[in-house]
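1st attempt posting a full record on here, be nice pls
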Amino acid sequence: QVQLLEFGGGLVQPGGSLRLACSASSKISSINTMGWYRQAPGKQREFVATVSRDGTKNYSDSVKGRFTISRDNALNAAYLEMNSLEPEDTAVYYCKILSTDDLYWGQGTQVTVSS
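the predicted structure (as tokens):
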């Protein structure tokens, strides 16, 4: 019954920045990994970034050096700071949280990069 809510999507020009946030509707007792995925129209959902319980971060090659993922365990929240955005980054971005017992997905937030 836990739901993930995403915020921060919108329209931005190439080279601009956006910050996405994801929060759980209720406390998740033991979170292992938080992450972000994205899906462009007509394409498969793809991995963007993850952060583990110990703080280890992983990024896809396409966003490494431009995006930064972070987490706030007390708030059950995940964040994605996106810089130097490109039109190819346009997609619906989904938050994912993996706990000891369950896998949770957000409903997605639209990010559009266009001049």
